[in-house]
Design brief:
It is built from five helices and five strands; from the N terminus they run H-H-H-E-H-E-E-E-E-H. With about 190 residues, the chain is of the alpha+beta class. It has one domain: Nuclear Transport Factor 2, Chain: A (Roll). It is globular. The N and C termini lie far apart (about 115 Å).
Length: about 190
């Protein structure tokens, strides 16, 4: 009898607890956590679906004045060129409806890099590392309405092998041809004017 009473009491308690349980409250992520998640999704894992859910339909990317589709193409082309691309959020600062981030991207350049309005760049198999600075403006609905981005294009293109690398001293100094001499090349000597 006591076993039956225990079982019946246990079932009754579980039923009451299940019926009258308190609602689970899910904390909203902070703007900093949201930005971190967006950056990790787009650049860290290559999941661009977050763009459709977290960016406003009228999104504008500065300075190119491009839209959501250009952002998707940019992220996918970077991922295709460096399938092992990793993103590390070094710093994220939030002020009002703005969030600024410094992101370090690293990956091995094993796939062709295709960028809109440029010729494809063949892979060189080297580790590429560069920092990107992003500034996001969130609209009243909590979606990203604008992005300003900036990174060291010369260093990036040097690592891709398109330009001489800035991290290595060239074997011979660069000599400027006289055709494009604008008065700044080292071989031009101008008389001193007093």
């Amino acid at each position: 009898m006591s076993r039956r009473k225990f079982t019946f009491t246990s079932l009754l308690v579980m039923l009451v607890i299940g019926t009258f349980s308190l609602p689970v409250i899910h904390a909203q992520p902070t703007l900093k956590e949201t930005v971190s998640g967006i950056i990790n999704s787009i650049y860290g894992t290559g999941d661009i679906s977050v763009i459709d859910t977290q960016f406003a339909p009228t999104f504008v990317r500065h300075p190119a004045e491009s839209d959501i589709n250009a952002l998707k193409i940019s992220a996918l082309s970077l991922r295709a060129a460096m399938p092992d691309l990793k993103a590390v959020n070094e710093l994220i600062l939030v002020e009002g409806n703005f969030a600024a981030a410094r992101v370090r991207l690293t990956g091995t350049f094993t796939g062709e890099f295709v960028s809109p309005n440029a010729l494809p760049i063949a892979p060189n198999g080297k580790l590429i590392e560069f920092a990107v600075h992003l500034l996001y403006r969130f609209d009243d609905t909590g979606k990203i309405a604008e992005e300003w981005d900036g990174f060291d294009n010369l260093n990036f293109l040097g690592q891709l092998g398109v330009l001489p690398s800035l991290g290595v001293t060239p074997v011979a100094p660069v000599q400027y041809p006289a055709v494009v001499d604008v008065g700044m090349s080292p071989q031009t000597v101008y008389p001193r004017v007093f």
